Amino acid sequence: xxxxxxxxxxxxxxxxxxxxxKPILISFLNGLIxxxxxxxxxxxxxxxxxxxKLMGLKDSYLDVKATLDNGTIVVIEMQVLNVKxxxxxxxxxxxxxxxxxxMTGKGYLQLDPVIALxxxxxxxxxxxxxxxxxxxxxxxxxxxxxLFPVMTLIFVELPKFNKSIAELESLADKWIYFIxxxxxxxxxxxxxETNSAIQQAFSIANSTNLSRQELDELEAQMFYFQDQQxxxxxxxxxxxQQxxQExxQQxxQExxQQxxQExxQQxxQQxxQExxKQGKxxxxxxxxxxxVGTLDESIQARVLQLSSAQLDSLTESLFDFNTVDNLxxxxx
Length: 332
Description:
With 332 residues, the chain is of the alpha/beta class. 48% of the residues lie in helices and 12% in strands. Mean pLDDT is 81; it is low at 51-60.
């Protein structure tokens, strides 16, 4: 047997958000949120699309969204690539899920808590070795909780999890092992077969149960992630090198023309800033071409006119663009 990689967008949604996924998601959330206790008895998997219902409010797309039997809303994201401002995006999506409840006619007293569960295939917190980190509203000095549950952010960092199959103890261990190791397995480990939900997850992840179209979509996503990772690394390195080189050259020229040490330092600084901005522009244009296709000259000109801060913001939003029209609407 071979199993699809749960870390891909297609596989994660198929395993945890399909029509038959309710018992899988219940076990998964009980393991990662409630330390394996059967706190969740039932839930409803809902549309993960979060529209921007207020003018100027950005739309967002989650991997999985569910309402638990106690009313708590859980939003789940599986993130493979470490994109810029990712941490802010997580907080934004959690806050939106909380605030959007008012749009359904609820008053403040009826607002339900939100839990944002995020699984990353990269290290997010370098100051701890914990695999699972939890953040909530808490008083800074005496560490008591806020009067009412509002938002909880839970992060699972896959690279920090190194347990072997024989070392798995908790339900959380077993689910993290499944997400991280399923694509490298040839059969379901005997110690995981006793959990019906995990066994069902393996069944859904079995590549022999997928249609040709599903396999093609999965393969395309795998290639996309690999290409994006390689392209981002190459583009970033090339863009920064070019920016530094151009900045140093321009700075030296301006400094030499002024003929004074102060002028040299100022010229170097100004030239470096201009060169870095040029490097950012080159990087953004390459990433945009990769993402939305050929850019006409007018769009390229608008990108080149962006400030350094606007270029950073555009880089953060790259993965939200599906068409050139979306890009044009974003550009100032």
